[in-house]
Amino acid sequence: MSREEQILAAATRLFAERSFDGVGVDAIAADAGVTGSAIYRHFSSKDEILAALFDRLIDALLIRIGEPADDPDAEIDGLIAAHVEFSIAHPELTIIWGREQAALAHVYRANLQRRQRAYVDRWIQALDTRYPGLSRDELAAAVRATHALMTSDTSRPASTRRIAGLGPLLCSLAKAALAPLGDPPPARVAGSS
Amino acid sequence: MSREEQILAAATRLFAERSFDGVGVDAIAADAGVTGSAIYRHFSSKDEILAALFDRLIDALLIRIGEPADDPDAEIDGLIAAHVEFSIAHPELTIIWGREQAALAHVYRANLQRRQRAYVDRWIQALDTRYPGLSRDELAAAVRATHALMTSDTSRPASTRRIAGLGPLLCSLAKAALAPLGDPPPARVAGSS
DNA sequence: CCAGATTGGAAACGATCGTTCACATCCGTG
DNA sequence: CACGGATGTGAACGATCGTTTCCAATCTGG
């Protein structure tokens, strides 16, 4: 594990436990086994560390969702499973993702928002196909609601035990939450009733 | 509006926009029309301001939910409506609630957690009555998931427009999300099929 | 009008913040 | 061995942090 990765791992842990503004570079460096000034051999600023974390986060997320499925229901199920699995596999990054976006310096924010929008658009596309007739604002709100539901375990106090079978539970809740968005569209060709 | 309320209003706005650690007492005071040191005429510390915000937040929430309803479905619907309406009426407090709990000083944390547990227990009771047979951990996870869904609009970028009919949409999504928890329990006395 | 309490401002405190700089150490390559 | 680049340390920087202190202004009740 390179020093750079050690620093990122320490920053991930500390940013999640406290916050970006609540953690100093000296604390991150100490957790990585060096002194504060050594941070600047690997990152040009504290902000760049946070930006690197967001970049890795989106990478890990985009890798999980793969290529779109043809069947609308299968596509949504795949997106849900990927998102839930990510939030369980990387709880600390998930916490940072939901909490520290405003703390990201303006210089790096545009890039994060662009990649993030690509991810959300994939969701909106999937929902629009499966539940047609909704406005883009409504679709975006539904996506936000579903994402919040799936990452809700990160708001659990760190002391409490993570329950077994959490992933399937969150998947079923997320899938069910989308039901009121509408009935499935009619199949392209006439067939079964 | 008393100076104390002005300070709390300024703190609410700034803590929500930036974060607790990211806002200095001078900024809060300036927003309230005084200098930084004047803060300490009304609050003993910056932490006490945050504690006061949490206290008011729980107050506003507990007032909204009122007394428990007899019908399990009506009770859940009431809880959902109250929570959604609160998060829409007080978006800044909702942001702070979800983001700054760890920033609250240890001295004030126990009180917040006690009152918050009372609120969550009311939810767990309602869900346990309507969807019996689940473990307490599962119920707690479902409550967290539903709460996250209902407050998801606070993760919207501040620049985007809030959509009309957001409240009913979130209510229906929240209600539907609970469906996979199980079928309704049989009525106490034999009657309609 | 005056005594006392309330409220606010200016300045300063020690601490911590992110960052830089000068210097030492190490390591691979010639 | 000599050398240059990569890596790390310790000290210091200006800035900002939360807080305290001292003093002035304002208000209130007798």
TrEMBL record, chains A, B:
Its domain of life reads: Bacteria
- Protein name from the UniProt record: TetR/AcrR family transcriptional regulator
- Pinpoint the HTH tetR-type domain residues: 1-61
Instruction: Tell me the DNA-binding residue spans.
Output: 24-43
Which Pfam families has this protein been placed in?
TetR_N
InterPro entries, alphabetically?
Homeodomain-like_sf (IPR009057), HTH-type_TetR-like_transc_reg (IPR050109), HTH_TetR (IPR001647)
Q: Which UniProt keywords apply?
A: DNA-binding
